[in-house]
Amino acid sequence: MALKVNQKNKETIVEQKQEGNEQQREKEEERLWSWGAGTDGQLGTARLEDEHLPQLLNVPSLSSSGPVSMLACGGSHVVALTSGGKVLTWGRGNSGQLGHGEMVNSLLTPKPVLSLESSFITQVSAGWNHSGFVSDEGCVFTCGDGSFGQLGHGDYRSHCSPVKVSFFDNKHVEQIACGMRHSLVLLKDSSGNQLFGFGSGRRGQLGISIDRIKSVNTPQVTCGFEVVKIISISANGDHSAALSADGQLYTWGRSFGANSDFLSPQHLPSPLQFSKAVLGWNHALVLSDDGQVFMLGGSHHGVLSNPEKVTPSKHLSVFFQVWQLYVPQFKCNCFGFGKYRITCFGESPWSRWDENCADCSWS
């Protein structure tokens, strides 16, 4: 496998060699790359250094648990999930967000989370300084900073190892989404109280009340979805989003533009149907059923200024079929085009490769 950077359009192109057997090709496809800020060990390169270009990670512990199927990037830490249901973490761990039983300044290489070995984990999420894990049995575990109640354990303590959120005993959790200081949990049950929020609610990101609330340490029902079936959730910074089964987008919390915060979920009407929504620090990316990417958010970050209307991105004049969207806990974007192409853009103070988009006024 070869990874090249197109200096003209800043695309990363992964070129797959044609020769060799299928087993070797599959092995190569399981490789991981990282770049950007690395001074907390979050790149997993065994160095406390920023990287301007993608670096190949050495993750030997994955051989017995399958390839990585999901990555979640927090403030300065990373949570990786393998196809075999195992979890590895690395990066900053000073709040216990790595889940290894102790608070460490930084972990430079991926390390399995041993306390989750007895569970088959199906989904993970990373907040600014906390992490969440969902098992195939519908249990949810959290660890890290709990000073705003974002772990959901009924207190404001931090935890160095994943602890099951007992509130959801006898319920089946489907997903968890971790924002900066809040968390969302989606239940498998499609009727009634299906979405819960906990942690900081100062900007309305929990969607639990018509009044501003500083924080809650036990899960509270997010209002407005009594007759709407939610299938996916996203959280980042001080805002939240959800997609319904009929492809409609809902957002709440800190406004993307200059408008007031939304204290309860707001439906953003669109004739399109969306299959994926991810939140950035000041914007959102949504993926339509036909593979097109749309954006909304503050114009000073190079994205659209009207949070009430989802409009085609002015920055992507030619669309490929997009298969994945990702926005870390900061201000940049990643798109997967086809099987071996990645495009990134947005604000990037740590990398000359991920430059600002052409129309962005920030430099």
TrEMBL record:
Lineage: superkingdom: Eukaryota
Domain RCC1-like: 32-311
Keyword RNA-binding: no
Pfam families attached to this UniProt entry: WD40_RLD
Spans annotated as Disordered: 1-30
PROSITE patterns hit by this protein: RCC1_2, RCC1_3
Alphabetical keyword list: Receptor, Repeat
RCC repeat feature ranges: 30-84, 85-137, 138-189, 193-246
InterPro entries in UniProt: RCC1-like_dom, RCC1/BLIP-II, Reg_chr_condens, Ub_ligase/GEF_domain
Basic and acidic residues composition bias: residue spans: 8-30
SUPFAM superfamilies for this protein: RCC1/BLIP-II (SSF50985)
Coiled coil: none
Identification of the protein by name: Ultraviolet-B receptor UVR8 isoform X3
Organism listed in the record: Durio zibethinus
Organism phylogeny: Eukaryota, Viridiplantae, Streptophyta, Embryophyta, Tracheophyta
